[in-house]
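Posting for a labmate who doesn't have an account.
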Amino acid sequence: MKGFLGSQDCWDIVKEKYVKLENAVAKAALTNEEKIVLKEVRKNDKRTFFFIFQRVDKSNIEKNLDVKTSNHGEFCKNSFKELKRPKKVHLQTLKAKFETLRMKVSESIDDYVT
């Protein structure tokens, strides 16, 4: 995930945590240049969140739908932490099936493949 987000110039937002500007008075006090920068930062934040949701399993998205945009790193950590064990179990199952896979003498190659 770090490599993918880094290639999309989004890793800094995950690492540094984007802080949302809530106060209307503070927004009004910004200069035009600061408003442009703020708009660009918000755009990158949403882009990062989009990439994270693309890469995360659907069951983990449902668990973390209430995540705020400032917690991208925490969201990634929680989402991928749960995937390691099932992946390992699935790989062990596939390995066992592969090792026991044998073609019978009376079987044709076409029957064996299908």
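Reply:
Got it, the structure tokens are right above this. The chain has a mean pLDDT of 70.
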